[in-house]
Design goal:
The chain has 121 residues and is mainly α. The protein has 2 domains: 84 residues, Alpha-Beta Plaits (2-Layer Sandwich), CATH 3.30.70; 37 residues. The chain is 61% helix and 11% strand. The chain has a 3-stranded antiparallel β-sheet with strand order 1-3-2, covered by helices on one side. The longest helix has 29 residues. The protein is flat, with a radius of gyration of 22 Å. Keywords: Membrane, Transmembrane, Transmembrane helix. Pfam families: DUF6164. This is DUF6164 family protein.
């Protein structure tokens, strides 16, 4: 029976390509399902043989650990260089977007609190 190795929801193309190359190098038999037309299913990479699951999951865990460390190193370098985008940098670049988002949050919280305020009277 096939086992889902990796859901492709919010997975960048380069990461999916790396996982495919990793499985090809092991070699592990796999197949891929594409996302549905209406976004209900994200698609995934499936293992064709249950016997390969342990090997594939260990290899994927190692790959993801290396990718995580590389991303952390890139972010630390961006912080040292001053190119990391934080909240205040985003606020300076997109003040209208931040303002509209904050107003939407206040309106939604107000709508959520409205029933309890009306019942309390």
């Amino acid at each position: 029976m096939a086992r889902l190795l990796l859901s492709l929801r919010d997975v960048p193309d380069d990461e999916a390509d790396d996982v495919r190359a990793l499985l090809d190098a092991l070699p592990v038999a796999y197949y891929e399902t594409r996302p549905s037309r209406f976004g209900i299913s994200a698609g995934g990479i499936w293992l064709a043989d249950d016997a390969d699951e342990t090997r594939a999951r260990e290899a994927l865990a190692g790959y993801q650990a290396r990718r995580r460390e590389a991303a952390r190193a890139d972010y630390a370098q961006a912080l040292r260089d001053g190119t990391a985008v934080g909240f205040f940098t985003f606020l300076r670049r997109h003040p209208l977007r931040v303002l509209v988002t904050l107003v939407a949050i206040v309106l939604l919280v107000g709508l959520l609190l409205l029933p309890s305020l009306l019942i309390g009277r």
